[in-house]
Structures are given as structure tokens and as C-alpha cells.
Design goal:
This protein is mainly alpha-helical. It has 14 helices and no strands. Helix 2 runs antiparallel to helix 3 (49-63), helix 5 (93-104) runs antiparallel to helix 6 (108-121) and helix 7 packs antiparallel against helix 8.
Length: 258
């Protein structure tokens, strides 16, 4: 109902087709969803719905590794989110997208502002809290990140493994290595190819002096993501506090990352 406001029945039909593709979630289907939402924009250029959903889908493609060009999709996500907000989008999705994109661009204050707006507009949305948790761990506000991640898990189990992976990383940032290792291990038990959880698990195990376990987790991460190296992580992980980034990378290097 929220998405179909201010659009014609014809545009609504195209929008629902896009939502069906979105629910499948494969890279090809996500691109088909974007094409559908851009079709809604063509039919209803003054309504926010097409821009909102296109922004969300571009962001998902970049965030969950469903593209070989995440920078392009992050740029498109930001552009479409701003277009939605210019058309008085009140869903909170635009702010959620901007929060995630802005932290990737190291716009710390902009990301924090967007998080506050998104969670205020969508107090029952697990994804808003999940993105808030991710932003807060990168800002170094790990306790708030844990709180947001826990709230997201309680609201919906759909992306629970992602929220738990964020919580594990936040606990690592807070120096709670045992908790970080336990939570990350739980995520990996459900999805052994979750690279983010594997990296947090490796770093936490290394910090705890469990070198064999750390090396095993890191080896699995490298098998899942060929080409993984310290330089790319150092360049792409958007931690505001460089000490947090340095500590995380140092433990991964101790586990064998080159």
C-alpha cells in the first residue's frame, strides 16, 4: 500500500512485478527489479515509489556483492534516494539507503543523520535498524551497534545472519573478542560462506591467541572470496577510527592474511 500511493494502476502493475523479482534476489532478478522500478519512474516521474525502490535495490546489489561494480550501484542508489526525498518520500527507505551509502563514502555526519531519520520514520523496520547497526560499528559506536543489531533480529529473522555478523564485528571493535568469536561462529554455522563473519571470526580468534582456529577461518574466507587481501580491506572498510581498522587488519595479518 505504501508503495502504490500516488501511482496509476498501470504503474502499480509494473511496481509489483519489480517486487516479485526483488523477492527472488538473484543478481539477474535484482537487475530486472531495477528495470521494473525505472519503468515506474517513466510512468510516474513525480511519484517517489519508483525512485525509492530503485535506490533500495541498487544498494542491495552493492551491499550484498551481487555486482562486479558496487561503486556504480552505490552512486545510483544515492542518486535515486535523493530523487525520492525530493518527491517527499515518507517511507524512510531513502534515508536508510543514504545512511549506508554515506558511510561507504566516509561522510560520517551525513550517515549518522540519515540513520536517525530512518529509524524515526521506520521504527518497526528491521532493515533500518540493521543498517543503523552497520553504520554505528563503522563510526566506532559499538554499543549502539549491538543494540540496533539485537533490535533488528527481534523484528525479523529474514536477514538475521547479517545482523548477527554486524553484531559480532561491533563486539570485536569493543574489544569483546570472546563474544565476537561466539557470535561470528554462530553465523558461520548457518552460512559457512559468509565472508564478513569469517573475517570477524578469524580476527577475534587471533586476538584470543587461537592461531589455528584463526587461520582456518581466514583460509575459508579466502576460498570463498579469491583475491582477498589486506590492502583491499584497508581501502574498503569504512571505519572512522583508523585505530579500529588497524587493529582488525593486524589480527587478520597475524592469522595469515597478506
Amino acid at each position: 500500500r505504501m508503495y502504490r500511493s500516488r501511482i496509476t494502476p498501470e504503474a502499480a502493475e509494473v511496481l509489483y512485478r519489480g517486487l516479485q523479482y526483488l523477492s527472488v534476489g538473484t543478481p539477474d532478478d535484482l537487475q530486472r527489479a531495477i528495470d521494473s522500478f525505472e519503468g515506474v519512474i517513466e510512468l510516474q516521474p513525480d511519484a517517489p515509489s519508483g525512485y525509492t525502490l530503485a535506490a533500495m535495490t541498487h544498494n542491495w546489489m552493492a551491499m550484498f556483492g551481487a555486482t562486479e561494480d558496487p561503486a556504480r550501484h552505490y552512486a545510483a542508489a544515492e542518486e535515486q534516494a535523493l530523487e525520492a526525498l525530493d518527491r517527499n518520500d515518507e517511507s524512510g527507505i531513502g534515508q536508510t539507503v543514504l545512511a549506508h551509502v554515506r558511510v561507504q563514502h566516509h561522510d560520517w555526519d551525513g550517515a549518522l543523520e540519515a540513520v536517525r531519520q530512518a529509524t524515526a520514520l521506520r521504527p518497526s523496520c528491521d532493515l533500518s535498524y540493521g543498517v543503523a547497526a552497520s553504520v554505528m560499528r563503522y563510526l566506532g559506536r559499538w554499543e549502539e551497534a549491538v543494540e540496533y543489531a539485537n533490535r533488528a533480529v527481534l523484528l525479523s529473522p529474514l536477514f538475521a545472519s547479517w545482523y548477527e555478523s554486524i553484531r559480532a564485528n561491533a563486539e570485536f571493535i569493543g574489544g569483546n573478542y570472546e563474544i565476537a568469536a561466539d557470535v561470528a561462529e554462530g553465523v558461520v554455522a548457518g552460512n559457512e560462506d559468509d565472508v564478513d563473519a569469517l573475517l570477524t571470526l578469524a580476527a577475534a580468534q587471533s586476538a584470543l591467541g587461537r592461531s589455528r582456529h584463526a587461520a582456518a577461518a581466514l583460509d575459508h574466507a579466502r576460498q570463498t572470496r579469491p583475491g582477498l587481501d589486506a590492502a583491499s580491506l584497508r581501502a574498503n572498510l569504512p571505519y572512522r577510527n583508523r585505530d579500529n581498522l588497524t587493529r582488525f587488519i593486524a589480527e587478520l595479518e597475524a592469522a595469515g592474511l597478506e
